[in-house]
Design brief:
about 300 residues; 9 helices; alpha/beta
């Protein structure tokens, strides 16, 4: 395995590359763009790279399905870190292009919902066609296949384009969340501001099936930050659920919730416990009464005394 190589959703000039370069270790790694999320993750699976950075969630569009599906299937991988990146688009064009010249536009599918209102207001007749990434859209504009692309302003120089309009976003403070993914290993020690990600499969379709899963978290005071259903491919009505929960697997409330899920679900895939981006331990909300590690230990000790006749 190449311990110094990181892959990411390319080509050069993507928001994913910009997010990757915010990591301190990126300065000492070989950063290799890949054509797709599956390609970036497969490079980790087959030992060509130590880790891959891929988008997993957008504050406007929600979960990035390509990443969620890849993490739920195939050889297991594990999330080690997350990165939050503010997102604003620029309209990149070939030099000399005016707004009135633009008839076709492109960008990543996740970008479209973030610029839809702007397009309707300024380019109502333009035809949209999705690209593999925003930077790939810029490359297609460079090649003359489209008139304009929505991408990061920083991609303009890479592809010899101009930013005709900047700071385009329908929603203020839009962010995309990226995750650094590697091969499974022991999770890093808890920081006090952590997140745990899992994928959960339903055993069978019956009334209250999803509620039963959620109760494993609720009764232990574990707050959920994301839950998204994804089809398993086994037919209509067959779903798995990608879940992000507050806390670390070493926290008693989180560990016991996962054990509860393992008892009632045919399959649970642990995707990692890792620090939350931009959140310090002192910023984490106080635990509900009865859900701290000390509370779980006290209850366990009480049960042991009852079993020994010492209650």
């Amino acid at each position: 395995m190449s311990a110094t190589r990181y892959t990411y959703l390319g080509p050069e000039g993507t928001f994913t590359e910009a997010a990757l370069r915010t990591l301190p270790e990126a300065a000492t790694r070989e950063l290799v763009p890949m054509v797709s999320v599956p390609a970036a993750l497969d490079a980790v699976r087959n030992g060509e790279a130590a880790a891959a950075l891929v988008p997993i969630e957008n504050s406007v569009e929600g979960g990035v399905t390509a990443t969620l599906d890849e993490l739920a299937s195939g050889q297991p991988l594990m999330i080690y870190r997350e990165v939050l990146l503010p997102i604003a688009f620029a309209l990149l064009v070939r030099p000399g292009t005016k707004l009135s010249d633009i008839k076709t536009v492109t960008g990543h599918p996740v970008a479209q919902p973030q610029v839809r209102n702007w397009l309707r207001a300024h380019l109502p007749e333009a035809v949209w066609e999705s690209a593999a990434s925003n930077a790939d859209g810029a490359r297609l504009v460079q090649e003359g296949r489209f008139d304009a692309a929505f991408a990061g302003e920083f991609a303009a120089a890479t592809y010899g384009l101009e930013a005709l309009v900047t700071e385009i976003h329908d929603a203020e403070n839009a962010e995309t969340r990226f995750v650094l993914v590697g091969r499974p290993a022991r999770p890093a020690a808890p920081t006090g501001a952590d997140k745990t990600s899992v994928v959960i499969w339903l055993g069978d379709d019956h009334p209250g099936a999803l509620l039963e899963l959620l109760q494993e978290f609720a009764v232990r005071g574990v707050n959920l930050m994301l839950i998204q259903s994804r089809p398993t491919g086994a037919g209509i009505g067959n779903y798995c659920f990608a879940v992000d929960a507050e806390g670390h697997i070493s926290d008693r409330r989180v560990g016991e919730a996962l054990m509860g899920l393992k008892r009632i679900c045919p399959k649970v895939r642990f995707l990692g416990s890792y620090p939350r981006a931009g959140v310090a331990p002192e910023d984490v909300r106080a635990l509900r009464a009865g859900t701290s590690d000390a509370d779980f230990t006290s209850a366990s000790d009480w049960l042991a005394r009852c079993q020994d006749g010492r209650a």
